[in-house]
Amino acid sequence: MWQEILPNTWENILSRIRSFDYSQKNAVLVPAAALGVGGVLVYWLTSRHKIKTIEMGDGWWGSGERPLKGKEDESIRPFKIETSDKEIEDLHHRLEQARYTPPLEGAAFHYGFNSSYLQKVVAYWRNQFDWRKQVEVLNKYPHFRTTIEGIDIHFIHVKPSYVPHGRAVQPLLMVHGWPGSFYEFYKIIPLLTEPARHSLNEGDVVFEVICPSIPGYGFSEAPHQKGFDSIATARIFHKLMNRLGFKEYYLQGGDWGSHITTNMAQMLPQSVKGLHLNIVFDNKRGLRRMISVMLGAYVPWLVGFTREDVRRMYPFIQKNIYELLRESGYLHIQATKPDTAGCGLNDSPVGLAAYILEKFSTWTDKSFLHKDDGGLESKYSLDELLTNVMIYWVTSSIVSSMRFYKENISKGSLTADARVGVYVPTGIAAFPQELAHTPRTWAKEIFKNLITYSYMPRGGHFAAFEEPKLLAEDIMHFVRKVEQL
């Protein structure tokens, strides 16, 4: 029976297909095709404009295992820096017992910190430097601590004393680097919180400033677990700002602070109103970049370089390879075996001062290499320089601060997050004595929404410490532009 039914059934199906006219086919096929193509186009457009971000994740950096029960104490506790006779007496004893190796004749700072000048610094430190007075200076701004991911985070939070009617106060998180500290920002804070009083503007841009200490630096507790990198720091600082009640805020950074705040912008772009940097880390390589470097010296306009870019970048081998190699020996030690070198630095205040202050010489101005005193007192006072050293000394934080290099560099996290673009409004202040120069055209490859790019007239790596007014003016210029968008 089925042998007869099956052929008849197929004949019926074929005859219906033949009778299905083109207008009916089009009525079904055209909308279906359009729907398919439209779906693919919508998917392509949405995926193309979707901003890639760094996953925020979570972490635990306290001692031992993370508690299974109980919520972390989220209280914000006032904090005060204190000292004691015992602390000062111990310092003086160690300074008195220091040993020195005579410098080579005519060496200046070419072999590192000149020991003849070091003896003068130590004599001042022992006999004239007043740590108690500097503690009072440090305590002039409100200090706080709060526990995040198992460790205590230290920060200062300075609000403007007066806000003109109708003006919005902009929250600004400023992050230091190595071998600096929150103290780097003490001269720029009043310029940002009370600009009208310092003749910077008519008060149209006013900030409240939050300056945290990177965990393991100064008065922030050091992580007890391995793996604490810039991404973990970025997450903790976002949590800090959220805990302070801020939903949107500006960020500013140099050195590690630049990398941390960039990670913050990559992690939660919806929370970052704007990102201002005074150094750009550019890790891009390849044939295109090589061609750009080769042509830039002869036809800079062809590759997007300005005359100022050329002046700062060339001769390229000298400025971007030789000089960087000369200034980065510390980096290789800290990125591999930080604890070994750190043992001596943590035990000797004289060794610690030489190690830190040498950076404040040649990173401020490369020509200071040729000066017997490293040019240090031409830009800073000994009280300022030694106060920064003391923050590392009294907290025993030099080793944990050096470990930050190993955690970031040895596992390649610097290049991993470099593949994620930055889409928040960005401003860059390019100081002429910075360790390396990144031209605007290169910066735009990373920072997709570059609002301002300023060639600063003078200054080096420690911009807020050395040229606070120049940096403050550029931050305000950038924020003013962003607020007008």
Keywords for this structure?
47% helix, 9 strands, 9-stranded mixed beta sheet, alpha/beta, 11% strand, 485 residues
Provide structural commentary.
- With 485 residues, the protein is of the alpha/beta class.
- 47% of the residues lie in helices and 11% in strands.
- Helix 6 links the parallel strand 4 and strand 5.
- The longest helix is centred in the N-terminal third of the chain and has 28 residues.
Q: How are the strands ordered across the major sheet?
A: 1-2-3-5-4-6-7-8-9
Number of strands: 9
Structural class: alpha/beta
Largest sheet: 9 strands, mixed
Shape by Cα distribution = globular
Low-confidence stretches: 1-7, 16-34, 39-48
- Portion of residues in helices? 40-55%
Q: Quote the distance from N terminus to C terminus.
A: 80 Å
> What is the mean pLDDT?
90
Question: What percentage of amino acids are in beta strands?
Answer: 5-15%
Number of helices in the DSSP assignment: 21
SSE series: HHEHHHEEEHEHEHEHHHHHHHHHHEHEHH
For the CA atoms, what is the radius of gyration? 29 Å
Short description:
The chain has helices at residues 2-19, 22-49, 85-96, 115-127, 131-138, 189-193, 230-243, 256-267, 287-296, 307-313, 316-327, 329-334, 338-347, 349-362, 376-379, 382-395, 398-409, 413-416, 440-446, 463-466, 468-483, and strands spanning 77-79, 143-148, 151-158, 169-175, 206-212, 249-253, 272-277, 426-430, 450-455. By secondary structure, the protein is an alpha/beta fold. The protein has a nine-stranded mixed beta sheet with strand order 1-2-3-5-4-6-7-8-9, sandwiched between helices.
